[in-house]
Design brief:
The chain is α+β, with helices and mostly antiparallel strands. Helices cover 43% and strands 23% of the residues. The protein folds into 3 domains: 190 residues, no CATH class; 100 residues, Pdz3 Domain; 82 residues, Pdz3 Domain, CATH 2.30.42. It has a 4-stranded antiparallel beta sheet with strand order 6-5-7-8. Strands 12-11-13-14 form a 4-stranded antiparallel beta sheet. 29% of the residues are buried.
Length: 451
């Protein structure tokens, strides 16, 4: 199955599951508070599948899998029979309406907790945070970190895997003070202070580690060409899948890193490449073109793809917990990511983080496909993280989102009367325009990433 089809399938599954959970939160609480639900829809547009239950709620799976909604009985949206007024949403107390709206994001967070709970019980595997390389003149080098160091603490928090290191770095995005990292070197733990005032996070998908000059250890990759990108220099030169790169401009190549060390720094410089094909040597001339990477760096690119190697078992740690400790860890992890998400949004609003980091459905689909290919653990972790992001997004005080409705209800609680319909309408229009603006930026960023 092609990567595009995998991405589409993974995206549809992800959106379907997360939207269903979100809308089920509204649905479940509404029914328990005595509100009649007219329709529960996953997706928009033309219904593909529909059915009704005994309470005459219509369930719909629609053609456009980019959201969903729960339609409740409401006098503001149509005439309601006298006998059903008690079941109308608008007739419920402000606290009941508040609970119904809040339930959607809360269920997104509950979904993440359940996923992490299961993963912790079965065991979460992650790479040990051993540094493979330190960039020259980087923040990490000036702080004294070396290749081979194992990062054991960041921000005084234990980091057993690279995922935990990244989580702590996410907390510090946009900061300009010192970052404290403890690293183990030959059995001795040393403390290093990294100057974040020079932490430059470039590109649409900034790499937090590379921005500090830290490159994680990777298993050596054999320089066997797995694929060749259409239209790029390698294809034009005649390189084929199955070729093994053995020499570049007089330098022997024993691993993929040997090749990339040369090609990435050879923009517009012809390279004499020797490969073995069917046991015979073949010679080609390839000129790397300049290409901006996702983290904003400009490097040479020839259009070759190789198969990555798995880390050996002794480079992997697996965290496995029993029932209750796993639940506590899942709650803590979800809470941490909720906090980080709000902090990143805040820094984005004040300009500490660029708007180019926003992602739309194309990037989400690509990420979903990539994690699904790697393994179920990574895909489930991706779903949990996206679910948290969806919950946080919906809690933003933007009219048209759940958070906007909650804001209106807070005003109603404080003023002891609802805001006027005119004010709510103006707020909804502003919120809609702002949301469209964010969506356009996200789509624009997605398109740029495809280049």
């Amino acid at each position: 199955m092609s990567s595009i089809l995998i991405s589409i399938l993974a995206f549809i599954i992800a959106i379907g599951v997360l939207v269903t959970f979100h809308e089920f939160g509204h649905f479940w609480v509404a029914r328990r508070l005595g509100v009649k639900v007219l329709r529960f829809s996953v997706g928009f547009g033309k219904p593909l599948i529909r059915w009704r239950d005994k309470q005459q709620t219509e369930y719909v799976i629609a053609a456009i899998p980019l959201g969903g909604y729960v339609k409740m009985l409401d006098e503001r949206e149509g005439e309601v029979a006298q006998s059903e007024l008690a079941y109308a949403f608008n007739r419920k107390s402000v606290w009941a309406r508040f609970a119904i709206v809040l339930a959607g994001p809360v269920f997104n967070f509950l979904f993440a907790i359940v996923v992490y709970w299961g993963l912790f019980m079965f065991g979460i595997a992650g790479a040990i945070p051993i540094i493979g390389e330190i960039k020259q003149n980087s923040i990490a080098q000036h702080a004294g970190l070396l290749s081979g160091d194992e990062i054991v603490k960041v921000n005084h928090q234990v980091t057993n895997t690279w995922q935990q290191v990244i989580k702590q770095l996410m907390r510090r995005i946009g900061d300009n003070d010192k970052l404290e990292i403890e690293a183990k070197r030959e059995g001795t733990v040393t403390t290093h202070f990294l100057d974040l005032s020079h932490w430059q996070l470039k590109g649409d998908k900034p790499d937090l580690l590379h921005g500090l000059g830290i490159i994680p250890y990777e298993a050596p990759i054999f320089p066997l060409v797995q694929d060749v990108v259409d239209g790029e220099a390698a294809m034009r030169a005649g390189i084929l899948p199955g070729d093994i790169i053995v020499n570049v401009s007089g330098k022997s190549i024993n691993s993929w890193k040997d090749f990339t060390d040369i090609s990435l720094n050879s923009i517009d410089k012809p390279l004499q490449i020797t490969v073995t094909r069917d046991g015979k040597l073949q010679h080609f001339t390839i000129t790397p073109r300049a290409k901006e990477t996702a983290n904003g760096e400009i490097s040479g690119y020839v259009g070759l793809v190789v198969k990555t190697e798995k880390l050996p078992d002794n480079m992997i740690r697996k965290e496995k917990l029993s029932l209750i400790p796993a639940l506590m860890a899942a709650i803590q992890k979800t809470q941490e990511y909720i906090t980080i998400s709000f902090k990143i949004i805040g820094k984005m609003l004040v300009g500490d983080i660029g708007m180019q980091t926003l992602s739309g459905p194309i990037t989400i689909a690509q990420s979903a496909g990539a994690t699904l290919v790697v393994g179920l653990q990574y895909y489930l972790s991706f779903l949990a993280l996206i679910s948290i992001s969806l919950g946080v997004l919906n809690l933003l005080p933007i009219p048209i989102l759940d958070g906007g409705h909650l804001l209106f209800y807070l005003f109603e609680i404080i003023l002891r009367k609802p805001l006027s319909e005119r004010m709510q309408l103006v707020g909804t229009k502003i919120g809609f325009l702002f949301l469209v603006f964010l969506m356009l930026i996200a789509f624009y960023n997605d398109i740029l990433r495809l280049k």
